[in-house]
Amino acid sequence: MSDAVVTRFAPSPTGFLHIGGARTALFNWLYAKSKGGRMLLRIEDTDRERSTDAAVAAIIDGLTWLGLDWDGEPISQFERAERHRQVARDLVAAGKAYLCYCTPAELEAMREKARAEGRPPRYDGTWRDRDPSLAPEGVKPAIRIKAPQDGETIIDDQVQGRVAFPNKDLDDFIILRSDANPTYMHAVVVDDHDMGVTHVIRGDDHLTNAARQKIIYDAMGWAFPVMSHIPLIHGADGAKLSKRHGALGVEAYRAMGYLPAALRNYLVRLGWAHGDSEVLSTEEMIALFELSGIGRSPSRFDFAKLENLNGHYMRVTPDAELLAHIERLLPDLPDGAAIAAKLDDTMRAKLLAALPGLKERAKTLVELVDAAGYLFADRPLPIDEKAALLLDANGRKAVGDLAEKLAVVDDWSAASTEAVVRAYAEAEGLKLGKVAQPLRAALTGRTTSPGIFDVLAVLGRDETIGRLRDAA
């Protein structure tokens, strides 16, 4: 297919890139990639009181971490306000929009009357056909679109199907406020048209906006983009997603130790499906993504599923790449600075050697770093309560004996140290576990760790012997 497909992601910079926004960005990105098209980034910063540069930076940082790129420079909606004004004035000149001189008090009275009569509060068209020469002095006019008054506005949506909106419900809405600032409804249309957007993929909370926006497209004689309104994400309990469910910023998932590839895979499966495929590489997602695969029902956010998927991605990620993810995460962790300070070339090599054993058990990078804590611990090693119980008189004797037997091992490896420990257990008439458990407690300060012989190999002879003698 040609590169005629143009999608856009258009967040408001009033906070972090939240998880629903990240999924919308992903769907736009995948659709553009799958069709050989382009995805553009527009920052909808017309709300000057709530828009901040920090939020813009956080959104760009979140998209970059997720691995979602865009074509060209990000576009500021606010900076295009003069263009929005010009289109509004053009519509007035063409008789498709008009100046409205209603005061706030008159508009409030109109709303009150509608409520008293049991009608939805709609603008009553007072200035629709009135001559502007009748304008009261000192009142700055707003510009309202002339909406069709009968019939229906039809949206043929790729996800929701054919949706009809009675035009009587859409009223003559404002496109340019009396302070000459464009409304969101109007700015979006002008921007999407000028940017050449062919496909709008966004949350279904914008579905009624689509009908109003189509009125502006029709008034300007512009081609209407293909619309896809995707259901919102709900919590595991079916309620609207809130912070307790996981409606957090993308940066929170990074700090919790999730991998971008795992989060991408998890998000694509929230509302889009291809058969029973759960694990999909980015290349597979791009090859398979179609708007027809998006369901109409809200999907439920499930942390347990995300954790399991993340565990899978950690196991299949090459160790050097995983190490790079860990190093990027350290500034976000409470004791990360202390670990980073010790991460010289020697420690980096030790951590790299330990990763195959560590990543088998961990489901997040945070768990993995925690499990790797024994590598960075200073002697004498802090021993937790459960581990201390294993270092009773018998346990201390075993680690003391093994310290001396291991001290003479020349060819230090998992295999050579295992042979020594097994021979010792046999000679003492003990099961291997009775020896391995105190050994683990002495070397890691815990009762769980990667395979104990892997731990011995990674720590090296000098550190192993030192820790065993400390414990004995």
UniProtKB/TrEMBL annotation:
Reactions the enzyme catalyzes: tRNA(Glu) + L-glutamate + ATP = L-glutamyl-tRNA(Glu) + AMP + diphosphate
GO biological-process terms attached to the record: glutamyl-tRNA aminoacylation
One Pfam family recorded for the sequence: tRNA-synt_1c
Record motif 'HIGH' region, residues: 11-21
Coiled-coil segments: none
EC number: 6.1.1.17
GO molecular function: ATP binding; glutamate-tRNA ligase activity; tRNA binding; zinc ion binding
Keywords associated with the record: Aminoacyl-tRNA synthetase, ATP-binding, Cytoplasm, Ligase, Nucleotide-binding, Protein biosynthesis
PANTHER family: GLUTAMATE--TRNA LIGASE, GLUTAMATE--TRNA LIGASE, MITOCHONDRIAL-RELATED
NCBIfam families linked to this entry: gltX_bact
Subunit: Monomer.
UniProt name for this protein: Glutamate--tRNA ligase
Organismal lineage: Bacteria, Pseudomonadati, Pseudomonadota, Alphaproteobacteria, Hyphomicrobiales
